[in-house]
Amino acid sequence: MPEILRGKDIAPARGKLGVLMPGIGAVASTLLTGLFSARKGLARPVGSLTQMGKIRLGKRTDRRFELIKDFIGLTDLADMVFGGWDCFPDSAYLAARKAKVLTPEHIEAVREELEAIEPMPAVFDRKFVQNLDGRHVKKGATKMDLAGMLMKDIDAFRTQHRTSRLVMCWTASTEAYREARRVHASVKNFEAGLKTSSPDISPSQIYAYAALKMGIPYINGAPHITTDCPAFLELAGENRVPVCGKDFKTGQTLMKTILAPGFAARLLGISGWFSTNILGNRDGEVLDNPESFRSKEISKLGVLDTILRPDLYPELYGDFYHKVKINYYPPRGDNKESWDNIDIYGWMDYPMQIKVNFLCRDSILAAPVVLDLILFTDLAARAKMGGIQEWLSFYFKSPMVREGLYAENDLFVQRIKLLNTLRYLMREELIHHTGLDYYYDLEETRPSPRRVTASKRSSKTSKG
């Protein structure tokens, strides 16, 4: 665990948590409709670890399980207030109606709350999202001026809602793929680039700069780099602000991170994995552009290598073929359909095939991910955990990690890391699932190792 955690108390979740979202479209409006409905007891927050998940504490024989939200002291849904920006002027209510993710009955049940959330004019550059023509946008002489406008918006929101804490989460469209340039090498370079309106600075990076400069945690829900470059990590470090990303793990990639660990665990070979998708809605329209799709393709393609480890098992995974395609199909709307054909082989190299046809609802899967990330990132801020939050990799296709490390994409390893981080923060025993306590307890003359401490301050390890 980072040194910054040792001996630190977690500030209580007092007052209102303000949530600022660049992008009030299908994902944001679905999240808001479900959250407001849950407040009224009209719907359940299914899929949310923070709302429905339980955590095991101690040995299996203790039978201790607590709701995560109570165990760690997360912000209550009733204490959350929302705002954001969009290149279209539609309120969250109109956005929900146009997205057609949810039934009119669900939307109308919280119409008043949704109508109250009207987006502020967005920072928008069509060079980064070529298939949209946003006109509800800010105008400034330089990109630094645009960043200043965002900071004024944030201050106004904080004053209006009397928030005690803020979190910013990108829920807008995927930007065109751009590699980090010299302008991203340091805060000094980046601020100079803002003043000269460098073409290498994207709108999402202007939002992230405004947030981190003001000490606000930033979550990147899309595959473009944004905070995943030296300038933003430097800024996050200076201000001790949490950052995490990239790209919410929802449909097809979620299935990959469930299936691939099983193949790898049983040492089944893979010769090919072909993935294709059809989807409509604004997300599909944006990804119909090759530059925006490239950001998504990189995010989707990278997930298998760190699970299968072809460097360690070249004879099983050294040259497997991995292909990903996305096709814009307007009639499907938000109800994305993904197909996977997996060619595997087993004993004596005999070939087998697996076919997966996942008819999912993209925003339905994304909404609980966004909620969990907001609440956990606020927790990280209250615990003074600055920089990359690798323990939140559970929620991302392309998790951010410190330089020199590879991203852990195995969903089950990610889950253990997340839950053990929560145990660590609350000074509970970490759980490693070794089962050694059972065998040691059978021998009365041998001490059980479960109470051994790893260091003067570190948490104890529970086995079993």
Number of helices: 18
- The averaged pLDDT comes out at 90
CATH superfamily of the largest domain: NAD(P)-binding Rossmann-like Domain
CATH architecture of the largest domain: 3-Layer(aba) Sandwich
Strand proportion: 15-25%
CATH class of the largest domain, please? Answer: Alpha Beta
Low-confidence stretches: 1-7, 440-463
Helix content: 25-40%
What's the number of structural domains?
3
Question: What this model shows, in words?
Answer:
- With 464 residues, the chain is α/β, with parallel strands linked by helices.
- The protein is built from 18 helices and 15 strands.
- It has helices at residues 26-39, 49-52, 68-72, 92-99, 104-108, 111-115, 143-161, 187-195, 203-213, 230-239, 252-265, 281-287, 290-301, 305-308, 314-317, 362-382, 411-425, 436-441; strands at residues 16-22, 54-57, 64-67, 80-86, 120-121, 163-170, 218-220, 242-245, 269-279, 321-328, 337-345, 351-359, 387-388, 430-431, 461-462.
- The protein has a 7-stranded parallel sheet with strand order 5-4-1-6-7-8-13, with helices on both faces. A 4-stranded mixed sheet has the order 10-9-11-12. Strands 2-3 form a two-stranded antiparallel ribbon.
- Helix 10 (230-239) links the parallel strand 7 (218-220) and strand 8 (242-245).
- It starts with 15 loop residues before the first strand and ends with a strand.
